[in-house]
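Worked example 2:
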Amino acid sequence: MKVFYLILTAVGLVLPYTELIPFIIEHDSDMVYLFSRPFEEHATAFFAYDLFIAGTAAAAFIIHEGRKQSVKGWGWCIAGIFAVGVCFGLPLFLYLRERQANQLNS
């Protein structure tokens, strides 16, 4: 699972930015436009709300489990959720937790 989580972390970093960087270049770093755009249509608003709730749940899970299990680096996962997305922060946390569990069992 550790390798699987690491692969998801890498894909979760690269794939979203392959879409974000051209968008920012095209729209001149207009962050108001970037964050208002998902709410222009009902279908995209659905996905935006879904991601907001999933991100909140993932952050709460990471904070709770990270503290409870003393996972080193869990704060970077929270930062990753805000800087990249759930697709990066959650797999990173799962990787760190799995790596720590493997080290403790060795």
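The helical segments are 2-26, 31-36, 42-68, 74-83, 86-105. Residues 2-105 form one domain.
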